[in-house]
Amino acid sequence: MRILLTLAFTILFTASAMAGAPISYNDGETELQGYVSAPTENAGTTPIVMIVHQWKGLGDYEKKRADMLADQGYVAFAIDMYGKDIRPETTDEAKTQSSKYKGNPDLARSRLNAALATARTLELGSPDDIAIIGYCFGGTMALKLARTGADIDGAVSFHGGLNTDKPAEKDSIKAEIEVHHGAADPHVPPEQVDAFMREMEDSGTDFAFYAYDGAVHAFTEKHAGNDPSTGAAYDANADQKSWARTLDFLKRKFAE
């Protein structure tokens, strides 16, 4: 420990255009549409990084992060938790959608497992080398997948919620966890952080926790604005440091 302050699918691109394309897959009868960005070399042996979107659904932000990961040599799969064409435009709509998954853990796990099953079928990547990262709502979901005991290498949360309906049992988490948290985030109070720390320690999970002084919710997202008093704002320092640490984390995990 280090503490620091699904499922059939259709890839809609050709072998000559292996970056930045949609991917359709299913969770049961629900059609989902994600996004895959990948390097053009080492097909079949490249580690896969799944990305879970924030509460307004899969959009340009997550696609940009996928492209950034592809530039680092990974197959990046930005998953869809909500369903094809369900992309909330307002805060109220986003709250309604995200609450469906926060309030129904079985549905959330089903969506995550569908995405993981799809990731393992990607011909571009290695099914044995998979990590998941997520932002805000997506950070909560990334941790949820790790808490299920999924056979993945790592899980990274950026300004995500840390609470859970089902705390991890001893030795149940296989993934190493890394959390990037805004120390002034009003949506993730200190008692939630303390409970998470106890859970990780009690379960024997290998984890790192980074708290960024002065950073609030959504600190990696420029569209959150620059006014911390609102509770959500971009913080360049926290964004840059958390990304660099994540790249180091992925490099190390996939080298093991």
- Please mark out the parts with pLDDT under 50 across 5 or more consecutive residues, or reply none: 1-18
- The portion of residues assigned to helices is 25-40%
What is the assembly state of the chains in this entry?
Answer: single chain
Morphology: globular
Tally of alpha and pi helices: 6
| CATH homologous superfamily assignment | Alpha/Beta hydrolase fold, catalytic domain
Largest sheet: 10 strands, mixed
Strand arrangement, major sheet: 1-10-9-8-7-5-6-4-3-2
Q: What is the strand content?
A: 15-25%
* CATH A-level architecture: 3-Layer(aba) Sandwich
In N-to-C order, the SSE pattern is EEEEEHEHHEHEEHEH
Report the average pLDDT across residues: 92
Structure summary, number of beta strands = 10
* First-last Cα distance: 17 Å
Classified by CATH, the class is Alpha Beta
CATH topology, by name, is Rossmann fold
Q: How many structural domains does the protein architecture include?
A: 1
Helices and strands: which structural class? alpha/beta
